[in-house]
Amino acid sequence: MLAPTHSKPDNVVHLTGILDVRTVGDVRQTLNDLIDASDGDVIVDLEEVDAVDATGLGLLVATHRRTQSLGRQLVLWHPMPSVVRILAVTRLHRVLNVERTPLPISA
């Protein structure tokens, strides 16, 4: 189950679980509310999202377009490797602003 939570001061939406056809409605509402109630970039924290289906990808693209039309930016934070693979296979990593978790430096 996906549980969107919205943190107003820093314009971050934290998602957990799976972003799919069953959960995209709640996430869409949360993102639209954030866009309407704030200024600046919209950050979606994907660190705890296990998977994204085509409907979830569509929501991310639609949100990206909406923020761009307002002169703002959608930023996807720290997606898990499985989500990074989906973004790469669909080539959405070239369109969406993805900030990956830095790899630890080993000695």
TrEMBL record:
Domain STAS: 12-107
SUPFAM superfamilies xref list: SpoIIaa-like (SSF52091)
One GO MF term: anti-sigma factor antagonist activity
PROSITE patterns: STAS
Classification via Pfam families: STAS (PF01740)
Top-level taxon in the UniProt lineage: Bacteria
Sequence similarity: Belongs to the anti-sigma-factor antagonist family.
Name of the protein described by the UniProt record: Anti-sigma factor antagonist
Organism this protein belongs to: Kribbella soli
